[in-house]
Amino acid sequence: MPSYQTLDAIADAYVPALALLWLLLVLVALLARRWQAAPMRVGLGAATLAIAYGLMWLDGVLGAWAAAGLDYSTHAAVAFALVSVAGAASRRLVLPAAISLVLYAGLMLYQRYHSVADIVSTLIVAGLPMASIAHRWAARIRVAPGPGRGT
Q1: Quick check: 25 and 86 in contact, CB under 8 A?
Q2: Quick one: which of 116, 142, 144, 134 has its CA closest to 47?
Q3: CA gap 10, 27 in Å, rounded
Q4: Which sign does the torsion angle of CA 129, 145, 22, 42 carry?
């Protein structure tokens, strides 16, 4: 089993890797000359991240999670935000992105960053609006596959 420090480094790299994927998905839209899809991918990412960080701020002000004996998981919310963008942008990414999110949640639990209740409560409150927005925008931000390629 890898050391705590190795697993910590993996956990620390996950969200930046998702952010890089988000930027690559914007680049794919630009390269496919989908001039409307690219800014919408940027917008979807910004909207979902605004929800994640907005709820973090709101929880800091109100202390709702602490009042319930929980901790708002900014890591889970931001990861879900970026996974939502990936899934909305490409059907091929839905399953791998979802699996990566479950593995990340497992890693957060194993490393004792958060409890199951922290992660689940965060994903219910933050994830529902993110998933709703991503679902509504998906058709507009996907790049139609051409011969021999698909997204």
Answers
A1: yes
A2: 134
A3: 25
A4: negative
**Which tokens sit at 129?**
């609006």
Q: What is the pLDDT at residue 142?
A: 77
CA 19/CA 30 separation, integer angstroms: 17
| Cβ contact 81:132 at 8 Å | no
What's the full length of the chain, in residues?
151
Grouping H, G, I as helix, E, B as strand and the rest as coil, residue 49 is helix
Q: What is the mean pLDDT of residues 65-93?
A: 96
Q: What's this model's pTM, rounded to 2 decimal places?
A: 0.89
By CB atoms closer than 10 A (0-12, 13-18, 19+), residue 35 is: exposed
Say yes or no to pLDDT of 138 above 90: no
